[in-house]
Structure formats: structure tokens, C-alpha cells
Amino acid sequence: xxxxxxxxxxxxxxxxxxxxxxxxxxxxxxxxxxxxxxxxxxxxxxxxxxxxxxxxxxxxxxxxxxxxxxxxxxxxxxxxxxxxxxxxxxxxxxxxxxxxxxxxxxxxxxxx
Length: 112
Hints:
Blueprint: H1 14-30, H2 35-52, H3 56-70, H4 75-82, H5 88-98
């Protein structure tokens, strides 16, 4: 699951924000990341995995989720290793698959 959030600055219309977001999503779908960006993402994911497992509750939640969602308690350790072989090509293939307009759910919070 991917999440994207846009907050409009004063004077920017919702239509302008949507258009800018669509341009950025199109760039993400079509242009491969460079190696520095991939390394930054790998570091963020590895850090999130470590932080999520620093408490007994976090460890228990990880085990419950991997068993109920994947049926395999060892998957929780395998997922952190699965991100390392990612290449710009594999990233683009998955982004083109998942970041499509027909896969979106849009929620708009408007001031009253």
C-alpha cells in the first residue's frame, strides 16, 4: 500500500494540487530512481524494521502479522532482506503496476 498526502498552500486550488500530484506520480511511475535514492529508501526501511522490533509488543505484533497474513513466521526476517536486491528496473516495474489511477482511493479534507 502506498500513501500520498498533499496539503495546499494558501492560494493554491485543489485542481492545481491534483495536477501537480499527477505530474509527480507520473514521474515516479516512469523514471527509475538513481542508486542514491534506492540506498536512502533501503536505509529508511531497515530503520523502520529495527524500530518496530525494539519492544516486546513490537516483536509480538510482527510475529502475529506474519503468521496471520503470510502463514510463515520466518517471513518477518526475510522481508528486510528482500529489499536489498531491488534495482531501478524492478522498482519501475512495481511502480507501474501499483501506482495507477484505477488503484486509487482519494480522500479530500476541505475547510468549512
